[in-house]
Every structure is written in C-alpha cells, then in structure tokens.
Amino acid sequence: MNNSINPSAGSILVTGGRLVDGTGLDRSNDGLLIRNGRIEALGAKALDVQADEVIKADGWVLTPGLVDLCCNLREPGNGQKGNIASETRAAAHGGFTTVCASPETSPVNDSGAVTHLIRDGAASRAVVRVLPIGAITRGLEGDLLSDMAGLKSAGCIAVGNGSRGVRNARILRRCMAYAQTFGLTVMFNPENQSLAADGYAHDGLVTSRLGLLGIPEVAETAAVMELLLLAEETGVRLHLSQLSCARSVDMLAEARQRGIQVTADVAMHQLVFTEEALAGFDGRFHVRPPLRSEADRLALVGGVRNGTIDAIVSQHQPHDSAAKQAPLAATEPGLSSIESVLSLGLELVNRDELTLPELIRALTSGPASVIDRSAAIAEGELADLCLFDPAATWQANERTLVSAGRHVPVENRNLPGVVRLTLVEGRKAWESLPA
C-alpha cells in the first residue's frame, strides 16, 4: 500500500465503474483519461490515447475528491495529537483531496505569520490540499478583531471562531462587518455560551437518566438567530458550521427565503448517531455540539437530502489516548473521523436515508461551492478524484488507521466502502488497489 503522493505522476486511464458527482452526473464510465494534473478526456476519446497506467474500475465508483470544511490538523502544535503529515494522509485514506484547516492551532491562526507557517508545512508534508481558515478574533478569545486583511493576503479562505463563541454581540457585529469589507466568508459554530454553560451532552432523555450536564437546543438556535440577523444587517457571507438541531435547519431555510447569504454544514456523526451513544458513558462520543435526539438526526438528514444543508464535514479532531480515557465530563470533545466519513455515509445510503448522488453532492460540490471552488468530473477540471469500491468492507482499528487519533466512532466493525485511489491533481495521495 502506498500512502504518499507519487512525485512523478504520469497519465492514468480509468475504465469501467460508475461516475457520480454533485452536479447531476451519474452514469457508467466508458473511460476517463488523466494527464498533466487534469481530466483530459472522457468516453471514447479517452480510449484513443495510450496511457502510462490503466485502472479497471468495474463495480467501483469514481467521484470528485471529497472536500472537508472542518478538519483539525493539530499543526502548529506540540505534535502529540497529530500533525499535517499524519492527518492529511488520513484524509487521503478517507477519499478527501481538500481539507480546510481549523484556526484552532497552537499558536492560534490569527495572523499572516501563522497562516504562512501552515501553508509552508502543507507545501512540504501534506499529501492533500490544505486551505487555512483564519481566526476571526485574536487568540479566538472573542475580544479583539484579528488582522483579517493580513489573513486573507496570506491565503486564508475564510475566517471563523473554531469551536469557540464570541460572547459579546457588539464585537460579533463588528467582526462580521469587518469581514464583509474584505469579502471574507465567516464560519461560525453557533452556540450561546451562557446557555451552554458547563454542559457536555444533549439536554434530553439520556442526560436525565444518567445525571449528565446538558446543553439545551436553544443554546444553538439562539445563536443561529443572532448570527442570521447580523448577517442580514451587515451583508456578510455567513456559513453556519456543524448544526445539530432540527429547528436550526428550519431557521436556515427561512433565512434563505429572505435572501440572506447563508450556507451550512453538518458533521457526519450527527447524521448517524444520537444521544443514546453516550448511554454507556463512552468518551468517544463526547462531541461539541452534542449528539442530539433521533428527531434532530432525521431533520439533519432531511436537510442534506433537500439541499438546505450544503455540506457534510468530518469535524476531525484527533486526540491522544489520555484525552479520551478520563471520566466522561473530563474528556476532550471530538472524534477522529475523517477516515470513516465516506463509509458512514454509505451506511446511510444502504439504509435508503440518502441516495448516493445526494451523499456525494454533500461531500464534494456542496462544500466546494461554499469556498468558491469547483468539484466536478468534466474535461479540463483538476484531477482531484476519489475511486472507491462500495461493495468491499474494512474495519477501523490500529492496523488500518492512519490518523494519530484512534478514537474512531466505529471500531472493529465492518464498514462499507474501501477507498482504492485518491488523486490530487493527478498524483496518487492514497492507493489501495487489489494485486
């Protein structure tokens, strides 16, 4: 198995299988030729050219490379939880070709200097494309505005608050107005910190039964409403990150009807698991926002299905083992999830909760549109591609995982969908082809 980029990428011809992208393409693959980092030809034209390598993909699915709007690479940082090299290899294993790096680094990505540090590290050690997100306030402390002009100039594709809130509404309004002047998208995890307080689970049946401290849904919905009203006033392009409540989906749809520029995403684990995952005090499922009710889960799936929610994200947060082995309340929130996102999505497809094109749209063209990128299978497009076998299965364990974080949502269980090939501009970032 080769999990590093091939430095001398030649031409590749893929024959057979099924082509699916988020723009409506869903048909059999007569031939797809990759040369010089781009898709050079499709169909009969592709078969007329002698390629350096031919891959027979019968029974497999070829899609645009997956795009993740929320990934923690843990660099810069102390390296204990992961780094750019380990986590981008994990991304490639999961079929991702582009990841947006969270500003929650150490030091926080609140200046052009830190952004350049991330980009330089990615240029030398990343096997997929890394797009930094800058911090909207200095140190993510919610008090002083960051140098947004410097962040944009250094290469940040958006600014946001990571998993932290901006407590002062006046400062929040100034942040959004300032970002609007630079044409920057703002990405916010909507949470009213006063209402969330010291909670760490959904304020519902499980917290009542087990005596856990809950975070009510209104902690999210109150923040969603505030952000939508301020976006409407300032005209900023708003992205709501990691929604978890049914009411948030309704509010998002209503805001769009009023003409507010707003997009949104949901973490894959919110589409698959509910508050019941915490019934055994399993620290892996201590996530923020918390896993909520089955009614919320179904509403989030419905939002993806009808396009109200633009993207599914990994919300990948690798931790060292000690961070997840404490009593539940003392564990650190987050799942190591980027390697299993596609497989969990295929489980939703197998249960008829999503169609395969709906899933692929939310993992490719949907998130790409949020950051003004393209993700399509067409002649002339960059050869950022994911080739997977939907019928094959794998298990997430110490032997198969690449991420430094081992706290995966599904361990030692047969998962559908094995990524056979991940290409970034025609170069192999991950390869697991049968002998």
Automatic annotation (TrEMBL):
<dbReference type="InterPro" id="IPR050138">
    <property type="entry name" value="DHOase/Allantoinase_Hydrolase"/>
</dbReference>
<keyword id="KW-0665">Pyrimidine biosynthesis</keyword>
<dbReference type="Pfam" id="PF12890">
    <property type="entry name" value="DHOase"/>
</dbReference>
<dbReference type="InterPro" id="IPR011059">
    <property type="entry name" value="Metal-dep_hydrolase_composite"/>
</dbReference>
<dbReference type="InterPro" id="IPR024403">
    <property type="entry name" value="DHOase_cat"/>
</dbReference>
<dbReference type="InterPro" id="IPR004722">
    <property type="entry name" value="DHOase"/>
</dbReference>
<feature type="domain" description="Dihydroorotase catalytic">
    <location>
        <begin position="60"/>
        <end position="245"/>
    </location>
</feature>
<dbReference type="InterPro" id="IPR032466">
    <property type="entry name" value="Metal_Hydrolase"/>
</dbReference>
<protein>
    <submittedName>
        <fullName>Dihydroorotase family protein</fullName>
    </submittedName>
</protein>
